[in-house]
Amino acid sequence: MNAHWWSKSLAGIVCGFALALGLAGLLAWAGPGGVNAINKTQLVMWSIAPLWLTALSLVFLFPTGRQAWAWLGGANLVVWSAMLLTRAWAV
Amino acid sequence: MRTDIIRTYKAVHTWTGITTGLLLFVAFYAGALTMFKQTLQRWSEPVSLAVAAPIGADQLIARTLALHPEFAKDFTLHLDGPARLSMKQSRRDTEPMLAIAGAEGDIVVRQDRSSGVDWLVDVVHRTAGLPVDLELGTAITGLAAALYALALISGLIILLPSLVKDLFALRLGKNVKRLWMDAHNLVGLVSLPFHLVMAFSAVVFGWHDLFYDALDQGVYQGRMAAIMRISNPPPPFAGDKTPVRTLDVAAILARSAEIAPGLHPTAIEYRNFGTKAATLRVVGDDPRYLVRGHGFLSLGGTDGAVLNREYLPGQQGTYSAVVSSFFALHFGEFGGDTVRWGYFFLGLSGAFLFYSGNLLWIESRRRPRRGQVEVPSQNRSTRIMAGLSVGVCLGTVAGLSASIVAARWLQGQFLDVNGWSRAVFYLVLVLAVGHALRHGAAPSAPRLLWLAAGATMALPLTSLVLGRTAAPGVDAVALGAGVVLALSARKTARRVARGPIDSVWSAARLEKEGLQS
Q1: Which residues contact B345 (CB under 8 A, 6 or more apart)?
Q2: Which residues of chain B are within 8 Å of residue A29 when distances are taken between CB atoms?
Q3: Are B220 and B230 in contact, with CB atoms under 8 Å apart?
Q4: B200 and A53 in contact by Cβ < 8 A?
Q5: What pLDDT, on a 0 to 100 scale, did the predictor assign at position B10?
Q6: B102 in a structural domain
């Protein structure tokens, strides 16, 4: 098994989870009904698994491990900035 | 698509599949049975609770509370079957206290130790047959489900380039491996939505605590509990112990029918009965909607005011309804019996998917005889995997059938039927795996198939011997399954004796290697 395999898997697990958490957070703060909508926390929690596992599944499409980290890291930067901004604006 | 990407995904598919296939087989086979766990329970315990209650539900509540005031804080009145009360010590209590009316109208209170088979099937499903407690088992199953989601998506990616060409091809030629591969791909692709739902939801069931913790820290700034409380405000008069009469059962059911005409009540859950703080949950089913477990309507105990309809089928808010649909899609709780049968067969086809996946793994590592006189010996890893596949899969089938039969025979014989029927399951499973690993897959496969056939046939035989059955459908399905298993046993025995010698499935090879069992 080549080195990329581990690097990509790790990128999918770590960055993929962070990305899923960030997107779930975006749904929580910016999604319809605002953060306090009835029983919204449950859907926010449920959204993590499919988002994370989709990211983890597709990470092997990157030719190299480095690219996987770079792209997922970049996506995290964008998503988390957006989430933190909407949160700051909402609070 | 580039071939190196396809090659990477083949590796992902192989590794995720082979590491989780056996666990998933157990979870899916037992999961298919959970669709009918109440029916199986009724089959295994036909006599219990069969007496009609001689007193009304309100009388039952009043007399029970007179004897056991500790019930008042939290108890359930069951409306399916004879009226009875149950009280759980905790949310996960599998052996609640039961209060039933005797023939004279006297109240009998005992611990419910009879919830054997439905509980067993459920536990085996959630722990994937591992002998660990439910929480750890569900977490491990959740991990397996995450890898299984990877296996599903990688399998789809591998299949994409040749999708149109290969999808409905079922090449019934000489190449048996090709046939198995075609069947594996066809079943996998056709039931992909079902499998994605199962994979994602099982991950959530196993890891929701972790996800909530991460959300609380990363997203909600530690205020998640407060935000959740907004959705679940405390009921009015919470903690107010002033004695006030709680609504009687007829009034509660009338109120429920008025608010939710489609809900068929199966139980009423009471909190703080007889006080100002009393609350009620009318629990029931409405087959027209995707329901989370059971739907329920929360009412105030003294005035019947609606407290919460977020879990009431058809009257939920959007977010609650979406989450309910995830639960319903996992548990097949919509559309009544049609969907239940559909899920039963989808579950079994899932079990087939993992079994065939293991066979393909073994087959693609086979060392064929190419002209040379000497029969090549097969890899150690494929020998072990073949043994495990046969032992775990057939052991699970035989073990569950045997434990269901045991639950019926042991009824009234021992104090703890629960523990005994679970012990029977593990005994059969461990013996099957041990036998298959020790003697090899080839001689074990037909033997274990016969064992599974026999254990499954024992269900209708038991009903025949005892001269009665509470669920004839169970006997009929078990008879059919037993026949299929017996036919498989005969066919497998033939292959073991006369099949290609350069395979883990040939007994002749074992003789040659001096490993005869």
Answers
A1: B32
A2: 219
A3: no
A4: yes
A5: 92
A6: yes
* DSSP structural state of residue B233: P
Quote the domain boundaries for residue B406.
Answer: 3-41+123-132+337-512
From B78, B113, B148, give the residue that closes a domain.
Answer: B113
Chain A residues within 8 A of B212 when measuring between CB atoms: 41, 45
The chain B residues in contact with chain A (CB within 8 A) are: 5, 8-9, 11-12, 146, 149-150, 153-154, 199-201, 203-204, 207-208, 211-212, 214-215, 218-221, 224, 227-228, 230-231, 310, 317-320, 322-323, 326
The answer to the question of residue B398 being in a domain is: yes
Number of domains observed in the structure of chain B: 3
Q: Are residues B418 and B303 both part of a single domain?
A: no
Q: Which residues of A touch B224 (CB under 8 A)?
A: 41
Q: State residue B413's pLDDT score.
A: 63
Neighbouring residues of B16: CB distance < 8 A, sequence distance ≥ 6 = B147, B148, B150, B151, B154
Q: What is the C-alpha separation between B96 and B110, in angstroms, rounded?
A: 9
Q: Distance between terminal CA atoms of chain B?
A: 48
A62 — contact with chain B (CB < 8 Å)? Answer: no
Identify the H or E element spanning B75: strand B74-78
Chain A stretch 63-82, residues whose beta carbon is closer than 8 A to a beta carbon of chain B = none
Q: What is the pLDDT of residue B418?
A: 66
pTM for this entry: 0.89
Q: In which band, very low, low, confident or very high, does the pLDDT at B251 lie, cut at 50, 70 and 90?
A: very high
**Among residues B81, B113, B145, which one ends one of the domains?**
B113
- Provide the CA B172 distance to its chain's centre, in angstroms: 33
Q: What is the pLDDT of residues B442-452, one digit of tens each?
A: 899 999 999 99
Do both B265 and B363 map to the same domain? no
CA distance A72 to chain B (A): 18
Q: Which candidate from A21, A25, A36 shows the least CB-CB separation from B227?
A: A36
Question: Out of A47-61, B98-112, B246-260, B487-501, which region has the weakest mean confidence (pLDDT)?
Answer: B98-112
pLDDT tier, B51 (very low <50, low <70, confident <90, very high otherwise):
low
Residue B216 covered by a domain: no
Inter-residue contact B282 to B256 (CB < 8 Å): yes
Residues B255 and B353 reside in one and the same domain: no
pLDDT 10s digits, B371-413: 766 777 778 888 899 999 999 999 999 999 999 998 888 876 6
CA distance A7 to chain B (A): 13
Q: Do B153 and A28 touch (CB under 8 A)?
A: no
- ipTM confidence score: 0.95
The answer to the question of residue B198 being in a domain is: no
Which residue in the set A43, A58, A83 is minimally distant from B323, CB to CB?
Answer: A43
The packing angle between helices B318-331 and A40-58, to 10°, is 60
Burial group, residue B339, by CB count within 10 angstroms (0-12, 13-18, 19+): middle
Question: Which residue of chain B has the CA closest to A30?
Answer: B219
| pLDDT tens for each residue of B187-205 | 999 999 999 999 999 999 9
Beta carbons of A44 and B219 less than 8 Å apart: yes
For residue B469, the model assigns a pLDDT of 85
Mean per-residue pLDDT, B73-85? 86
